[in-house]
């Protein structure tokens, strides 16, 4: 698959079959995602891969206020939680912010890493869904996320028998302006 095809055919998948995801394959996906660009190459994104049903269920039962997301996570063989090491991306060495965007750059970095993860997963035949609706404090507590990290997003990972169409995209006339 070439890059454009990979970008265009990746879909958010909300239905997974029971095929497990090999830990080695998931490691290869994270290795590929490690090539994502980041603020001064700070590489603040971390990945917690949950393939233990009990832990996944604990997150569904306690940290998913949106039942639709909980249903998806229960089905997916793996839930990846991305976290960000605090106080690096967007910061100077003395702890001050480099730009008016402040710590916003850490979400930017983690977003790029998340998309790179999803594209690499797609190349390896895996399906993914990024989820933003969850109880961050509860997820941190359940996973014992270290104090120096902040949870960014949840990503369901697995195999699917579905093939959803791409949701409609805005046209380049809407998106792009040349000056
Ligand atoms: C930051 C972010 C948060 C999202 N949160 C959710 C979510 O909580 N639940 C869900 O079903 N989809 C979620 N999505 C998936 C989007 O709905 C999906 O990417 C969008 O509809 C476009 O579809 P596509 O990914 O198949 O191109 C999220 C996507 C992003 C990037």
Q: List all distinct small molecules, including ions and cofactors, that are bound in this structure.
A: flavin mononucleotide
User: What does the average pLDDT come to?
Assistant: 98
Number of strands: 4
For the sheet with most strands, the description reads: 4 strands, antiparallel
* Secondary-structure element pattern, one letter each: HHEHHEHEHEH
Brief summary:
The chain has 179 residues and is of the alpha+beta class. Helices cover 39% and strands 16% of the residues. The model has no long low-confidence stretch (mean pLDDT 98).
Descriptive account of the structure:
With 179 residues, this protein is α+β, with helices and mostly antiparallel strands. The protein has a single domain (3-175), classed as NADH Oxidase. Helices cover 39% and strands 16% of the residues. The chain is built from 7 helices and 4 strands; from the N terminus they run H-H-E-H-H-E-H-E-H-E-H. It has helices at residues 3-9, 23-33, 53-63, 67-75, 104-123, 136-143, 172-175, and strands spanning 45-50, 78-85, 127-131, 149-158. The protein has a 4-stranded antiparallel β-sheet with strand order 1-2-4-3, with helices on both faces. Helix 2 crosses helix 5. The radius of gyration is 17 Å and the shape is globular. The model has no long low-confidence stretch (mean pLDDT 98). Flavin mononucleotide (FMN) is lined by residues 11-12, 14, 69, 129-133, 166-167.
């Amino acid at each position: 698959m070439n890059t454009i095809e990979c970008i265009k055919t990746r879909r958010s998948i909300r239905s997974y079959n029971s095929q497990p995801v090999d830990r080695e394959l998931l490691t290869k996906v994270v290795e590929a995602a490690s090539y994502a660009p980041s603020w001064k190459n700070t590489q603040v994104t971390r990945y917690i891969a949950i393939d233990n049903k009990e832990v996944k269920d604990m997150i569904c039962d306690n940290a998913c206020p949106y039942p639709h997301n909980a249903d998806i996570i229960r089905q997916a063989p793996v839930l990846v939680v991305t976290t960000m090491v605090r106080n690096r991306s967007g910061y100077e060495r003395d702890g001050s912010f480099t730009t008016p965007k402040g710590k916003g750059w850490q979400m930017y970095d983690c977003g790029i890493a998340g998309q790179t993860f999803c594209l690499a997963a797609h190349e390896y035949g895996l399906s993914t869904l990024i989820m933003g609706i969850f109880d961050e404090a509860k997820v941190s507590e359940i996973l014992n996320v270290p104090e120096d990290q902040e949870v960014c997003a949840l990503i369901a990972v697995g195999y699917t028998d579905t093939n959803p169409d791409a949701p409609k995209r805005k046209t380049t006339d809407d998106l792009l302006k040349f000056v």
